[in-house]
Recover the amino acids of this structure.
């Protein structure tokens, strides 16, 4: 061979490439978090984020995401097109390197803020490795290029497929998620739409198009939010009573950009969302710390200047100052670092300093000119402080953990074991199902907490109502770790008494509603429970098939029923369960409690966020979307797939 040296090089490189992608297939969770539907959706976000990077670089104005009928997804952007030139180190076209080498994404960067520094940022190669097949098409310099891969391995070299207008540039990626890797390969349309909408709010010059071409679901939605964060706040505060207009400011310091929007409503909660380089920082971090601390300090200073706080008065707490606040704090950082349970907590100290500096400067400027808004804001803090002081007296008694008696606490039927590792608590809808569950359970490790009717909607209720609610009080006491919103942050996950908290509701619209309310409660007050993977949904069966001959079988959804019908041509009786209450203790054990046979769905933070949105929609004043929801029953369908 004439070009021996080059060939050897190529082989060496291609071996490392394959090993890299093999590692991704062996341990996909390491790269995309999980192989559940959440991990599946990450594949799409990964590719979209790359295109958003191209937008941030100033070259892409439109991104479309299409869920195709065959289960694949297509993502198109009108950027410059991924480079196709030969990469010196590998001797391969750059686009091939991007799709086959781990972490190759940033190599072609040009110093802009890269999403790839964030939570996902694992690169297109991970998507490729976890796809049954993937095809990338690049339009660049008047030429259309294409390459195809299967499970991360190329099936052909980059090929020129034809020509196009020189001005017509961009990248199109189509892939089929691999059924060998993912538990389910059905993308969650709701979560994707929500994420695309979020991206539109954060990038006011970018248009994102969502198309669903799957059977019976066809729709097209265009997300374009030229009012940016201000429009985002409007959306978050829909149905709430604003007490002041939206405040917006931005600034740049030490190469870090900050954008903030906030508004006060008469709610008794704060809802502060943080983003870094377009990524939602679930666990918060230094940007939020900087903003919150400076805001609190500013409100206290103003309150003293205006005489609202007298010399003898103590300062407002942070929670007081932010009582009723909805805020978005979005930063762009050239080198973001993340830590925490789910690597979604921003850790850069300079982000705190810059956020604090800009917030101080801009807010002072704003409040000096807008005294009305300032007064309304301070009034929120005053109201909160008043209630806090009244409650501090009663709270100690109400939530005292030391006074908690394990047995005989309200309606909780506790388990015998005190080893949290093996303990589970079932939150069961309805007294009759609760009764059966108490009989059916394994008393040693399974506790039952029946709840009646609908628990309080924590999105709407004030903190004092939340804490006074019997069901919620019982839950806080039973779990043993306190709660984390409102006054004081005394949630301590190390005190958790149960390794699994299992929500068990009927498989109907009411049941789904109760489940969403519970998830909203956990999401708002005990998010760490979800982050650490302690919250589950039980899935009781919908049917029992009793054949003339052969074994009875429980069927958990309509799809299972259809399969059963197709594979069992003989006569069978179909028993339909209307609710948990209809099952006797033995059936309940067999189908829903028995760890050997039951089906549990682990709740992920995306589910809870979505539940929170759904709750908002169900409880809001708008009737149309609620009717639509009940008609579609979309949430249930999404949970089942
Ligand atoms: C680096 C340089 C150039 C384009 C891109 C990255 C790029 C990456 C992605 C990922 C998804 N869509 C994308 N579009 C563009 C430009 C190189 C040149 O001008 O030749």
């Amino acid at each position: 061979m004439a070009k021996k040296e080059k060939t050897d090089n190529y082989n060496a490189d291609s071996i490392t490439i394959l090993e890299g992608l093999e590692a991704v297939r062996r341990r996909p969770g390491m790269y995309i978090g999980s192989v559940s539907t959440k991990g599946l959706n990450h594949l799409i976000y990964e590719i979209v984020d790359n295109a958003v990077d191209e937008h941030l670089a100033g070259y892409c104005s439109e991104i479309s995401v299409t869920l195709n009928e065959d289960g694949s997804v297509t993502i198109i952007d009108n950027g410059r097109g991924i480079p196709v030139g030969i990469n010196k180190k590998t001797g391969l076209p750059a686009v091939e390197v991007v799709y086959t080498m781990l972490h190759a994404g940033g190599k072609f960067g040009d110093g802009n803020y890269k999403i790839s520094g964030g939570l996902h940022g694992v690169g297109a190669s991970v998507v490729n490795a976890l796809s049954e097949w993937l095809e990338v098409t690049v339009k660049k310099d008047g030429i259309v290029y294409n390459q195809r891969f299967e499970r991360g391995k190329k099936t052909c070299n980059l090929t020129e497929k034809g020509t196009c207008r020189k001005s017509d540039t961009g990248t199109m990626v189509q892939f089929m998620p691999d059924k060998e890797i993912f538990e389910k390969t059905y993308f969650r349309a709701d979560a994707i739409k929500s994420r695309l909408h979020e991206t539109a709010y954060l990038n006011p010059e970018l248009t994102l198009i969502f198309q669903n071409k799957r059977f019976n679901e066809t729709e097209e939605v265009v997300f374009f939010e030229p009012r940016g964060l201000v429009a985002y706040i409007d959306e978050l505060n829909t149905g709430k009573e604003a007490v002041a207009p939206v405040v917006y400011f931005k600034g740049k310091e030490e190469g870090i950009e900050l954008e903030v929007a906030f508004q006060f409503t008469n709610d008794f909660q704060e809802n502060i969302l943080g983003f870094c380089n377009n990524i939602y920082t679930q666990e918060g971090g230094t940007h939020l710390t900087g903003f919150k601390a400076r805001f609190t300090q500013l409100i206290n200073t103003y309150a003293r200047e205006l005489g609202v706080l007298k010399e003898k008065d103590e300062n407002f707490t942070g929670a007081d100052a932010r009582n009723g606040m909805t805020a978005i704090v979005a930063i762009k950082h050239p080198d973001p670092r993340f830590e925490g349970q789910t690597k979604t907590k921003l850790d850069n100290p300079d982000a705190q300093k810059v956020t604090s500096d800009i917030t101080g400067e801009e807010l002072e400027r704003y409040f000096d000119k807008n005294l009305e808004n300032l007064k309304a804001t301070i009034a929120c803090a005053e109201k909160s402080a008043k209630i806090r002081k009244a409650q501090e007296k009663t709270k100690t008694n109400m939530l005292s953990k030391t006074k908690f008696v394990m047995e005989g606490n309200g309606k909780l039927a506790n388990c015998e074991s005190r080893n949290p590792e093996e303990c589970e608590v079932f939150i069961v809808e309805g007294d009759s199902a609760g009764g059966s569950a108490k009989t059916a359970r394994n008393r040693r490790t399974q506790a039952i907490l029946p709840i009646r009717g609908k628990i309080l909607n924590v999105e709407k209720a004030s903190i004092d109502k939340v804490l006074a609610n019997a069901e919620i009080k019982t839950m806080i006491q039973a779990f043993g770790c306190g709660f984390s919103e409102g006054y004081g942050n005394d949630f301590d996950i190390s005190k958790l008494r149960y390794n699994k908290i299992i929500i068990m509701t009927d498989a109907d619209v009411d049941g789904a509603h109760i489940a969403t309310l519970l998830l909203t409660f956990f999401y708002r007050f005990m998010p760490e429970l979800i982050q650490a993977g302690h919250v589950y949904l039980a899935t009781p069966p919908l049917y029992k098939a009793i054949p003339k001959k052969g074994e009875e079988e429980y069927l958990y959804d309509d799809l299972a029923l259809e399969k059963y019908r197709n594979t069992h041509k003989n006569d069978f009786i179909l028993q339909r369960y209307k609710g948990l209450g209809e099952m006797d203790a033995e059936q309940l054990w067999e189908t829903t409690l028995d760890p050997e046979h039951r089906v549990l769905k682990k709740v992920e933070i995306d589910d809870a966020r979505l539940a929170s949105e759904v709750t908002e929609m169900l409880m809001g004043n708008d009737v149309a979307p609620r009717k639509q929801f009940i008609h579609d029953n979309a949430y249930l369908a999404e949970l089942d797939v």
About this structure: Residues 371-399 form the longest helix (29 residues). The chain has 21 helices and 26 strands. The longest strand covers residues 131-140. The mean pLDDT is 85.
